[in-house]
Design a protein that fits this description.
The structure holds two protein chains of two kinds. Chain A is of the alpha+beta class. In chain A, about 25% of the residues lie in helices and about 40% in strands. In chain A, strand 4 and strand 5 form a beta hairpin. Chain B is α+β, with helices and mostly antiparallel strands. Chain B has three domains: about 120 residues, 2-Layer Sandwich (Alpha-Beta Plaits); about 100 residues, Chitinase A, domain 3 (Roll); about 240 residues, no CATH class. Helix content of chain B is about 45%, strand content about 15%. In chain B, the strands form three sheets. In chain B, strands 6, 7, 8, 9 and 10 form a five-stranded antiparallel β-sheet that branches. Chain B has a four-stranded antiparallel β-sheet with strand order 1-2-4-3, with helices on one face. A two-stranded antiparallel sheet of chain B has the order 5-11. In chain B, a hairpin with a 3-residue loop joins strand 1 and strand 2. Classes of the chains: A alpha+beta, B alpha+beta. Chains A and B meet through helix 2 of A and helix 2 of B.
């Protein structure tokens, strides 16, 4: 599957945990659901001009959501999405996260 | 922290406070911690948000000088945390602390704020002894006693039914009347048994004149025109027909001035004893009045001679105090505050001199309470300024004379207040609090100051003789006389004489029910 770098990387994940991981050179992104590790590595290297040493990926599963609205029960699922944790060569940084 | 002060006009002081960078940084860090705890950002637990993210969540502007909630919070805390110490360093007697103006505020280099502080004004006393006037005591002659006796007669008059003559002015009448306009009755224009005093001008002009000459049971029809300034605009200026029936006529009959009359007023043996007693009370009242008038003149004299530069806040506060006093006074008299404002300000252009009202209900259009309150404050400004000045001047005289009030005197006064206001536990609690005690003490101190000045003058002028206060004369305590049934006024003679000289300010509202 051919994807442009901007199509592979959707957005950075900004949370307490992901911010913590940046200290150890690990950066977290939301990525295309069909992107492979190799595609992600290429996209990060292309977009941020860094060297990627490892890519770990996982898919957060859709989660059932229910809520009761005056007797009519509404149910559905949260959207599934794919998360990639990219490890950079030691000493390298992604400036984007620094500014935040 | 560096504090610089410059004196400013009207008893104020310009203070500039400079804060070092580390103090500023501590305050900003603390604000970041506080705000991070209160702000919720998805993905973070409260209090764990990094500062750059927090700034974005709070909408901190990237440009310097733009809105910055973190800095605002830090400024507030910095100001609160440093201003008291700064004032202590400046060693000034500050009346109130206004909001500061931030001259600079830069992370890493420090901050500076300045504010104009109102100071306790310095009173430069002028002459407050050697008055160019003396005490003026009213002479009590036979004519004045006569007029009091006349008043007592009037108060103890009886209303005697009149059947053998037509009504004339000053009669007490009961009438029924029906008012119509173009053949239709209008609201409030009719009554079955309506009591009135003929000639008291309580009705629209001409109405009472028409009653003169009517005998009991007789009826009369006449037409009248409502005055143009009548409060109910739907009736003002229009013609109306009135059909009136005289129900009852009573005339006031004054008792004869003799020993019996004297005896009926209390325990007076004869007329001579009554006259003597009246004379004694009048003289005591005159002395009391003279003393008060003299005190007032001394206060005015001392105030006029002194120079005080009043800071605005003091006047503003006094205006508020006067406003509160007005509300309390209205409350005591049972008049609605809003209603009072309406009467005072909405109708100011066409104020009716007398209350000639048959029909209740008057509309007020275009009435703005805020505007009325502003007008009231503007009106109070001048007297407030004067009051503040008087208080300060008397305080300064007390300082100069070394007049102090000891705790025992304060306790005594509070004890008196406790019995006087026994039905008002809130007020008593106030008097017992530290603030209440301070208030009682300063009031006592002022009173004693003025009394000291008066006594000193009296000592230097022995020809005047003693001028005691009314309440200091034990022989003049109130004694209740038996109530007189069927009299016009059932008040006893003693309190009538007392009441005639009390000058409590009364507030009258011109909204009165007529039917």
């Amino acid at each position: 599957m051919t994807l442009e770098a901007t199509e592979v990387i959707l957005r950075p994940v900004i949370s307490e945990k992901s911010m913590d991981e940046t200290q150890r050179g690990k950066y977290t992104f939301a990525v295309h659901e069909n992107a492979s590790k190799i595609q992600i590595k290429g996209a990060i290297e292309e977009l941020f001009r860094v060297n990627v040493t490892a890519v770990n990926v996982l898919t957060t599963k859709p989660k059932e959501k229910r809520r009761n609205l005056r007797r009519s029960r509404v149910s559905g699922y949260t959207s599934p999405w794919r998360k990639a944790i990219v490890t950079l060569a030691s000493g390298e940084k992604i400036e984007f996260f620094e500014g935040i | 922290m560096k504090v610089t002060t410059t004196p400013a006009p009207r008893s104020t002081m310009l203070m500039e406070v400079e804060l070092p960078a580390d103090r500023l940084q501590r305050s900003i860090d603390e604000s970041v911690r506080q705000l991070a705890r209160r702000t919720r950002v998805p993905g973070f637990r409260p209090g764990k948000i990094p500062r750059p993210l927090l700034e974005r969540a709070l909408g901190v502007s990237r440009e310097p000088g733009g809105p910055n909630p973190i800095y605002d919070d830090a400024k507030e805390h910095l100001f609160e945390g440093t201003v008291v110490q700064a004032i202590q360093e400046a060693d000034a007697d500050v009346l109130s602390i206004p909001a500061p103006e931030w001259v600079s505020f830069e992370e890493g280099s420090g901050a500076r704020y300045r504010l104009t502080l109102p100071l306790r004004p310095e009173v430069r006393l002028g002459a407050y002894t050697d008055y160019p006037f003396g005490i003026e005591i009213e002479e009590i002659d036979e004519a004045k006693i006569d007029s009091v006796i006349e008043q007592l007669r009037d108060q103890n008059a009886t209303l005697v039914p009149v059947e053998d003559r037509p009504a004339h002015k000053t009669d007490y009448a009961v009438i029924s009347f029906r008012g119509t306009r173009d053949g239709h009755e209008f609201e409030g224009g009719s009554a079955e048994r309506f009591p009135l005093v003929i000639g008291a001008d309580r009705m629209i002009p001409g109405f009472e004149d028409q009653l003169v000459g009517l005998r009991e049971g007789e009826s009369k029809t006449f037409s009248l025109t409502f005055p143009d300034d009548y409060p109910d605009t739907s009736l003002a200026g229009s013609d109306a027909q009135f059909h009136v029936t005289m129900r009852e006529i009573r005339a006031k009959q004054l008792p004869d001035v003799d020993d019996d009359f004297a005896a009926s007023l209390g325990t007076y043996e004869n007329l001579a004893a009554l006259r003597e007693e009246v004379g004694r009370r009048l003289r005591a009242n005159a002395l009391d009045r003279a003393r008060h008038a003299f005190s007032d003149r001394i206060i005015e004299f001392a105030t006029d001679n002194a120079t005080v530069e009043l800071p605005e806040v003091l006047v503003d506060r006094e205006v508020e105090v006067m406003h509160d006093e007005l509300r309390a006074r209205l409350g005591e008299q049972g008049i609605g505050y809003e209603e009072y404002l309406k009467v005072r300000f909405a109708q100011s252009e066409q104020k009716p001199e007398t209350e000639r009202i048959i029909i209740p209900g008057s509309e007020n259009r275009g009435f703005d309470p805020q505007q009325a309150e502003d007008a009231l404050h503007a009106e109070y400004r001048q007297p407030a300024e004067h009051r503040v000045k008087v208080l300060l001047v008397i305080g300064a005289i007390a300082d100069a004379e070394g007049i102090e009030i000891d705790d025992a005197a304060v306790d005594g006064e509070i004890e008196r207040a406790r019995t006087r206001y026994a039905e008002n536990p809130k007020l008593i609690a106030y008097f017992e609090s530290a603030r209440g005690r301070a208030y009682v003490r300063s009031t006592l101190r002022r009173t004693r100051t003025v009394e000291t000045l008066v006594d000193r003058w009296l000592e230097a002028h022995p020809e005047v003789g003693p001028v005691p206060h009314l309440e200091d004369d034990p022989a003049l305590t109130l004694s209740a006389a038996p109530a007189n049934d069927g009299k016009v006024a059932g008040d006893d003679a003693t309190s009538q004489i007392q009441a005639s000289q009390s000058t409590g300010e009364t507030v009258t509202a011109t909204t009165q029910r007529g039917s």
